[in-house]
Specification:
It is built from 4 helices and no strands. The protein is an all-alpha fold. It has one domain. The longest helix is centred in the C-terminal third of the chain and has 28 residues. It is flat, with a radius of gyration of 16 Å.
Length: about 100
């Protein structure tokens, strides 16, 4: 398969929200890769959500401005990192099924 390189600039706040969400998805994958253990996994997931998302949403009020200016780049700033985190979560779930 051949790949093409695509470069773009993401607005800061949009990208931070995407990265934080991606980190949360990755932590869910890490938590469940050895089977879901509520007493251990739920606190780890909540901690990840608080640590990652809390700082990222501080710039939430700037999102309308980012979407007004360059809506595609703002959306991609959120979506691109989430795609990476979702893929890692799916990979963790697949590995769990193989065990």
């Amino acid at each position: 398969m051949e790949y093409l390189e695509f470069k773009t600039n993401y607005p800061k706040e949009s990208h931070e929200i995407g990265l934080a969400t991606s980190a949360l998805l990755k932590s869910i994958g890490e938590a469940v890769k050895d089977g879901f253990q509520p007493s251990a996994d739920i606190p780890a997931i909540i901690t990840s959500a608080v640590l990652n998302l809390a700082s990222a949403i501080q710039g939430y009020d700037k999102l309308p401005e980012e979407f007004k200016g360059e809506s595609v780049n703002a959306a991609m700033g959120i979506i691109a990192p989430i795609g990476v985190g979702a893929q890692e979560l799916l990979n963790s779930l697949k590995k769990k099924e193989e065990i």
